[in-house]
Amino acid sequence: MQKIRIIASAFLLAGWQSCAIAQQILNLDSCRALALRNNKQLAVSHLKQEVAADTRKALRTKYLPKMDAVGGYELVSKEISLLNNDQKSALNNLGTNMMTKAGSGISTTLTEMAQKGLISPEEAQNIGQKFTALSAPIAEALNGAGTDIRRAFRTNNRNMFGAAIIVRQPVYMGGAITAANNIADITEELAANSTNNTIQNTLYSIDQAYWMVVSLHQKNKLAKSFLSLVQKLDSDVQKMINEGVATRADGLKVSVKVNEAEMKVTQAEDGLALSKMLLCQLCGLPLASNITLADEDKDIQPIAIAPFSGNVNTAWENRSELKMLQNTADISKENTKLVRSLYLPQVAITGGYLVTNPNVYNGFEHKFGGVWNIGIMIRMPIWNWQEGTYKIRASKTATQIANMELNEARELIELQVNQNQFKVKEANKKLAMATKNVEKAEENLRCANLGFAEGVMQTTDVMAAQTAWMDAQTQKIEAEIDVRLTQLGLQKALGVIN
Questions:
Q1: Would you state the pLDDT for residue 71?
Q2: Type and span of the H or E element at 163
Q3: Are 219 and 477 in contact (CB under 8 A)?
Q4: For the chain, the helix, strand and coil percentages under 3-state DSSP, each to the nearest 5
Q5: From CA 400, how far away is CA 332, in angstroms rounded?
Q6: 387 phi, psi to nearest 5 deg
Q7: How open is the CA angle 212-485-415, to the nearest 5 degrees?
Q8: C-alpha dihedral over 197, 202, 208, 210, to 10 degrees?
Q9: What is the mean pLDDT of the chain?
Q10: Span 98-105, mean pLDDT?
Q11: Could you tell me where the beta strands, DSSP code E, fall in 310-357?
Q12: Rounded Cα–Cα distance for residues 142 and 145 (Å)
């Protein structure tokens, strides 16, 4: 038995929790919070802000020196040769060639000396034989030395390796870096203004949907009240028909009115269900969510902004659209500076360390060898057929267009503010008139019911009074919502939706 009680308690608790989850009571603030949390476009705007912030941080690094490491390997089909083929051959046969020339010269000299009688032919022949015996090792030694020289001149660079560390520091880039950073700052501000604009539009849409649900709920209650009145009249008329004091035609007229009232209830319920679906969609909830609004059964009260202190200057200061257009104009100005910088002198300092294999700094030795370097690079445009002039002129024209669009938007917003102020005044007047009409319609309905009970009024008079009461109540509900929405529209026009 104890286990059964525990299981039953668990089921009851689970059922209570499911009912609490199924039935959601939302007020305006909670609907706004849900909409801001679940709005996809707002999430995109926040991501764009992050992109703009990262872009700004990236452009700040343009002021700082950059360091790169590069390396490579290359295999070529032929190596670089510092000597031509004749020079190589001459070095390979350096001793042979020298001793051949020397032997020819000595032989000629000995022959001439023998002919002149300076030495005997036997002595000349003996000297020649001794020179021939000595020339062979000398030629071999010189040939070896020539070969070593030829090999020393060989680059052997078919397999080439290279690596370098390069440092670059911009000194003056024509103002391009400053302009790019200014554009990044303005772009980040533009993204923030775009996010604020999305927030304003989201709050405006959610407020409209919220109060539309409240309005339709009030109309649904009114339609049911009207149906109750008509059904009571139908019941009274049926009793009178049974008593013989009313005709069947009177009963048919009232029955038609009952059917019309039932149709109005159905239309009000359908409209209420659709408006709740729209509100759920804006809040990021499932469309079939069972929601109840905190203001459904309360009297609709206007926003406490009487009199509203805002004016067109408030709109110019707060409207995100104007701020975004101003950002666009500022970006266009900086873009002109960026274009101009392409045609101004640019100065940068470079430095680094380079290593190669073969080592070109030590006779193409097959080891890595390197060298430090530092330099300055200057780029000066001289002639470009006025390309820069045309581009700068086009950029300035784009700035003029942006300023003209900004001025036009200011005029349109001023007109929008004035229109909404007139709408607020008109809505307040309609509400005052609707309130008086309700009082008169209620009195008229009371008199009609009293006269019908006394038998001095017809059923058509009562039905007319009921219809007038229904219309007056409907106009009052619409006027109350209109006051709320027109004040909301004025807040949006002024850019002060909280």
A1: 92
A2: strand 159-172
A3: yes
A4: 70, 10, 15
A5: 9
A6: -60, -45
A7: 140
A8: -150
A9: 85
A10: 72
A11: 346-357
A12: 5
Classified as helix, coil or strand, 232 is helix
Q: Which residues contact residue 186 at a Cβ distance below 8 angstroms, ignoring those fewer than 6 apart?
A: 327, 330, 331, 334
Cα-flanking dihedrals φ and ψ of residue 292, to 5°? -130, 130
Q: How far apart are CA 411 and CA 404, in angstroms?
A: 11
DSSP run (H or E) holding 431:
helix 387-454
> What's the length of the chain?
498
Measured distance CA(342)–CA(379) in Å, rounded: 10
Kindly report, residue by residue over 179-204, the tens digit of the pLDDT. 999 999 999 999 999 999 999 999 99
Whether 259 and 231 have beta carbons less than 8 Å apart is answered as no
Least confident span in 287-291, 295-299, 459-463: 295-299
Q: Which residues of 256-294 are buried (b: 16+ CB within 10 A; e: fewer)?
A: ebeeebeebbeebbebbeebbbebbebbebeeebebebe
CB neighbour list of residue 279: distance below 8 Å, 6 or more residues apart: 31, 206, 209, 210, 212, 213, 291
What local confidence, expressed as pLDDT, does residue 6 receive? 38
Structure tokens at 232: 């009571």
Higher pLDDT among residues 340 and 84, named by residue = 340
DSSP-derived letter for residue 174 is T
Checking DSSP bridges between strand 23-26 and strand 159-172, what pairing results, if any? Answer: unpaired
Strands 159-172 and 66-75, by their bridges, are antiparallel
The DSSP letter of residue 129 is H
Q: Are 378 and 349 a contacting pair, CB within 8 Å?
A: no
The strand pairing partners of 81, in sequence order, are 154
What is the Cβ-side half-sphere exposure of residue 94, based on CA atoms within 13 angstroms?
14
| CA gap 86, 290 in Å, rounded | 101
Amino acid at 105: G
Q: How far apart are CA 162 and CA 389, in angstroms?
A: 43
Q: Is the peptide bond before 286 cis (omega within 30 degrees of 0)?
A: no
- pLDDT tens digit sequence for 392-429: 999 999 999 999 999 999 999 999 999 999 999 999 99
